[in-house]
Amino acid sequence: MGARWTKDDLAQHLAKRQVGQTVQGGLRPRKYRNQPITVDGITFDSKKEANRWHELKLEQMAHNISELRHHEPTFSLQAGDEHVEIARYEPDFSYKRNGELLVIEDVKSSATRTPMYRLKKKWMEAQYGIVIQEV
After folding, report:
1. What is the distance between the alpha carbons of residues 39 and 47, in angstroms, rounded to a whole number?
2. Among candidates 102, 111, 110, 97, which has minimal Cα distance to 132?
3. Are 77 and 85 in contact (CB under 8 A)?
4. What is residue 25's DSSP assignment?
5. Which H or E run includes 121?
6. Is the dihedral of CA 43, 48, 54, 56 positive or negative?
7. b/e for 56-80, b at 16 or more Cβ within 10 A?
8. How far, in Å, are 33, 34, 111 from residue 94 at the CA level?
9. Nearest to 97, CA basis, from 64, 53, 62, 51
10. pLDDT at residue 23, rounded to an integer
11. Is the peptide bond before 73 cis (omega within 30 degrees of 0)?
12. Distance between CA 76 and CA 92 in Å, rounded?
């Protein structure tokens, strides 16, 4: 039988496995190899997301879109007759086109199109009638 872990050993091991660290104490690459970046005082999950923000800001300055938001609004994904919240969906970007059409965008790579994301995408369309645009 293998060695048993004490509560303190387990807590120490889990603390060392926080994102960005290895058990040896050095930096560990992020799950999807993305590089967080801060632009306009906003921290984006990746350079690709920050570039999309810049493109959308230019569109807003040209009055092609309005009400540009990052990681807002958050949608409650519900199920059953009692509308129990099962999950939440937070888009990368939302904005209005032509003054009224709400557009929801998510910056995605093939690696981040996880089964959970694909489920939430279908759920958003079924519950809210919103088709998430992937960039």
Report:
1. 10
2. 102
3. yes
4. S
5. helix 115-128
6. negative
7. beeeeeeeebeebebeeeebebeee
8. 25, 21, 22
9. 64
10. 47
11. yes
12. 15
Counting Cβ atoms within 10 Å, is residue 38 exposed (0-12), middle (13-18) or buried (19+)? exposed
Of 133, 3, 8, 107, the C-alpha closest to 48 is 107
The CA–CA distances, whole Å, from 50 to 3, 39, 54, 97 equal 47, 7, 6, 20
Query: Which residues partner with 123 through β-bridges?
Result: none
CB 86 within 8 A of CB 126: no
66-120 confidence digits (pLDDT tens): 999 999 999 999 998 888 999 999 999 999 998 888 999 999 988 889 999 999 9
Q: CA dist 33 to 23, 113, 114, 115, 117, Å?
A: 18, 14, 15, 19, 18
Cα separation, 108 vs 7, in Å, equals 39
